[in-house]
Amino acid sequence: MNYETMSHDEIHQHLADLEQQRVLALNTLSQIKKKGKFDLADTIRGMIAEQGFSVEDILPLLTSGRRRSQRARTRVATPSVSTPAGAYYVDPEDDANIYFRGAIPNWMKTKMQGQGLDPSNKDDRNTFKANYLRRVAA
Fold it and tell me: To which H or E segment does residue 111 belong?
């Protein structure tokens, strides 16, 4: 198609036809995606039923706000107390709460604030570590 030989009206009509084709293609794509979602949902329902579960059993696992792998959940559920490089600190009330460096964990911030200490203040952090946490040497 040679646009140089077309009149203004012909080019305008050609653009309108292209826009109509584009809208039709987008609508068709939308319908195909919608059908694909329903087909996928049916397949997943079948897989869930084959495993002996109900959709209600599995749905909360799929819609949780933060998704983590099974390995990460296991790691959190049973924290590794392998000695980090260098000294680290353990909460005497809960051995699962370990701090060795870097960002201050939420459990530590909460306990510091409970004692009237500011987690963003280095002196307060050092006071808290010295007076509350149990230091484990490397």
Answer: helix 106-114
